[in-house]
């Protein structure tokens, strides 16, 4: 008479857990991409600062106009790259936010089914206790009747 608990939506719960795990992986991957793009931006900013310092050093000494034009064009090129990199970084940040929202939704869906499972388990335990109580009552009645 001992029954084992079987959750009626167990396959759905497993699917929700799998979906949440996939979203966690996607979220982690998106964060890695974002950090990679941030590193590229920092590298570009550092490179720009190095060229500016180099230009300032050359400006204090005797210099050729050609060298200054070359340094200015390098700064301009890096400025353009920085603008592009900031756009890419913004896109990666949006991707991270999007995957974060998807992860939150997947977690909520999983949690909903876990709560449902807990409630079903509580009902199962109550019914089991009721059945045990009924069985004990039957045993007591049988013993009392056989005496």
UniProtKB/TrEMBL annotation:
Topology class, membrane: Peripheral membrane protein
Chief location: membrane
Alphabetically ordered keywords of this record: Bacterial flagellum biogenesis, Bacterial flagellum protein export, Cell membrane, Cell projection, Chemotaxis, Cilium, Flagellum, Membrane, Protein transport, Transport
BP-aspect Gene Ontology terms: bacterial-type flagellum organization; bacterial-type flagellum-dependent cell motility; chemotaxis; protein transport
Subcellular location: Cell membrane
Stored InterPro entries: Flag_assembly_chemotaxis_eff (IPR053716), Flagell_FliJ (IPR012823)
Gene Ontology CC terms, in alphabetical order: bacterial-type flagellum; plasma membrane
Keyword hit for Transport: yes
Keyword Cell membrane: yes
UniProt superkingdom: Bacteria
Family: Belongs to the FliJ family.
Protein name: Flagellar FliJ protein
Species of origin: Alkaliphilus metalliredigens (strain QYMF)
């Amino acid at each position: 008479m001992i029954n084992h608990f079987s959750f009626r939506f167990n396959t759905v719960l497993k699917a929700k857990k799998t979906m949440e795990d996939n979203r966690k992986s996607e979220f982690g991957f998106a964060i890695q991409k974002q950090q990679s793009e941030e590193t590229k931006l920092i590298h570009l900013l550092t490179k720009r600062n190095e060229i500016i310092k180099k230009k300032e050093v050359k400006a204090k000494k005797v210099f050729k106009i050609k060298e200054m034009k070359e340094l200015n064009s390098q700064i301009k090129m890096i400025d353009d790259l920085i603008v592009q990199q900031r756009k890419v970084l913004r896109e990666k940040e949006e991707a991270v936010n999007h995957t974060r929202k998807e992860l939150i939704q997947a977690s909520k869906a999983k949690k909903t089914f876990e709560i449902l499972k807990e409630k079903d388990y509580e009902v199962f335990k109550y019914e089991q206790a009721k059945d045990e109580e009924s069985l004990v009552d039957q045993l007591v009645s049988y013993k009392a009747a056989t005496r």
